[in-house]
Every structure is written in C-alpha cells, then in structure tokens.
Give the backbone structure.
Amino acid sequence: MASDNESRMEKTVNALKEEYNSIRTGRASASIFDKVRVDYYGTPTPLNQVGTISIPEARTVVISPFDKSSISAIEKSIQKAELGLNPSNDGKVIRIAIPPLTAERRKELVKQAKSTAENYRTTIRNIRRDGNDSLKKQQKAGDLTEDQLKTETDKLQKLTDKYIEEINKIYETKEKEIMD
C-alpha cells in the first residue's frame, strides 16, 4: 500500500521535472524543444526524431535535420510552438539565437514555475488523502488495528512531507536558474 503511494508521489515529482524542462531560461537547452512536433509527411513527429539538436554556445541552438527537405516544416513548428524564438535557416541547418530574458519575463516565468509547483504539491496531498481513505477502509473492514492505522497514517504523512520538500527544492533550483 505505502509503496503504491510512494511510486505515485515519485511519478508526480518526475512529472514536475519534465514540465520544468520546457520552461525556457536565458540559456540554450535542447529540452526547450521537447514539446515541439513537426508535421513530417503528415505525421506530428517530435523534433528530436527529425533532426539533431546541438548547443554550440550558451545562447545558440543548432538543429540539423536528418532530411534536408523538412527544414521549412521544422522552422514552422518552432514558430508555432510559441517559445518566443526566431529560427533562421541557411538551407542546411536551423540556427536559433536564445535572447536574454527581460526582468519582466523572468518574473512571469518564476510565477509560472511557482504555480506549477503548487499544483504538484496539491497532487501529492491528494495522494495522501487517497491513501488515508484507503487505510480507514481497511481499518473498518478489520484488516488494520487502531495502532496500525496510526502507524501507517504517520508513515504516509512523512512520505508526503518528504516529497513536498523535494518539490520545494526543485522549484527553488528552477527559480535561481530563471533569475540568473
């Protein structure tokens, strides 16, 4: 029972990390493009499956398409993704200069990151609530004694505290990253 709750909380934390990867900071990062889909012969295909994404400098991304004929489709997909980036191509590769973030944009991103973290903390608390409900049902059914219920509830609370603390650390790291 506890391991089920723990694995659900672990998945929640991993989902937060994934979501934070797509929040752009002032540095170039291949993970910015994780959600970009390219219309490749009529099929929405992840960008990293139609080309190689490389970071030659701190504020530059270079995308080398595997198929040169897809270069304009890749360019359009990046523009449609609303990442605030302007790709340019030379016929062989797409270059993207990552502009430095304005102070106002940084504040918006921090606010977005904070809101996202709060949503994930709520998810962790919901997992705790579901776990507690399940424990109470087990006690009513006679599968748990009053003492076992108390012990299991305390374990679940410690688990909740641990994962909420982890979410807080991830948020603080992301906030520093955005403000740098």
In short: Strands lie at 37-40, 43-46, 51-57, 60-65, 87-89, 94-97. The mean pLDDT is 89. The helical segments are 2-21, 71-80, 103-140, 146-179.
